[in-house]
Amino acid sequence: MLMKQERIERLLAHEDATWHWRYWGLFFNLIAVAFISYQTSIYLPLILFAVYLPQLCVTWCKTKVLLTFNPDPRYRRWIYSDFIVEWFIFLLFLCLLAAYHTDLLTIWPLMTILMTGTIGGMVFSRVVNRIVLTFDQQHVTNRMFDEAKTERHTHQKTSS
Prior knowledge:
This protein is mainly α.
């Protein structure tokens, strides 16, 4: 089992190695959406798909890195569940936007469900991190990782 600083270093290395998924994936997906939307009028689900899919790919890669930190089945189950819930929310959003586009939903129920799903996903991620911290003291939460990225960025600026 790795210590917290080693985990942060691996996650930072992973972030450096996979930045292209986020930016190039977004770029090519937006080009595909522009081409498809020129052919048809289904904009909203396609735009969501194009914007969120690269982030989902990066999250999957981060999940694979996190799974290498601890072989405990509980740890693996909670890390997988965090990604699965995020994937489910993505699919739910696509289905809801498609339902709105076909006039099965109006805007207010759609917005209510989307906001509930967004808040629920963020709360679930925080709950997962807190639960994992109870049995793996070396777990790196999203907040810790963001602080490490900020610290590295400010250190690079001051050393230049």
